[in-house]
Amino acid sequence: MINEAKSDFNKVIGAFTVFKFIKLLSSPFNQMDAFKYGIIDKDGKYLKNVDDLNGHEKKSVDAFNRMIIGIKKIINTHQNPSLRAKMKRLPTALMILQDEAEKVGADGVEVITEVRAYLKEIHGIEVDDDFEIDALNEMFDEEIGE
Fold first, then answer.
1. Residue 73 pLDDT level (bands cut at 50, 70, 90)
2. Which terminus of the chain, N or C, has less C-beta within 10 A?
C-alpha cells in the first residue's frame, strides 16, 4: 500500500516536472523569473554573475532553470526557422527531456513513456509528431486559471 502511494506520488512529481520543463521551454525569456530579477536579458544572455545573487535570484537560475535557458538559447540561435519551429513542438521537447534524463542516470524511455501516459490518461492527449507545445500550454493555463 505504501509502495503504491509512493509510486503515485513519484508520477505526480514527474508529471509536474515535465509540465514545468515544457512550459518554460516554450515561454519567452521575458516571462522567466530570471528575467524579472534582471539576471538575463530578453535573449537569455546573463547580465549578473550567478555567484553574486541572493536567495530568490539564485532560485530563478537553479540548475533546472539554467538548463532551460541553455536549451532555449540553442534553439533560438539556430539559423533555420523551420527547425526552430520544430524545436518548439512537444515531441521534440520530449526527446530533449529524454536525453537530459539519461544524462543524470534516469531511464529516459521510461520518463517519456510516463509523460505520454499521464497526458493521455489525465488529459486525453495523444502526442504525435505535429503536437504543438502552445496548445498544451493553453490547456494547462485554462486548468490553473491563468
1. confident
2. N
